[in-house]
Specification:
Length: 59
Amino acid sequence: MAQDPPLTAAEKAQLAWLGARMCKRELAGPDVDQADLRRKFDRILDGARKRAEQGAKSQ
């Protein structure tokens, strides 16, 4: 995976919350779908990457 972008405190909290929800679903069994949580997780990281790129361009 590419280097992770710097995250804000809010993004860190959101990712921690989603990670906890993913763990809880994993305990429910292997047949439980986690695709929606993975998409949210990826969307937050994509937003952080985009913000980091924009910040690098402006400097």
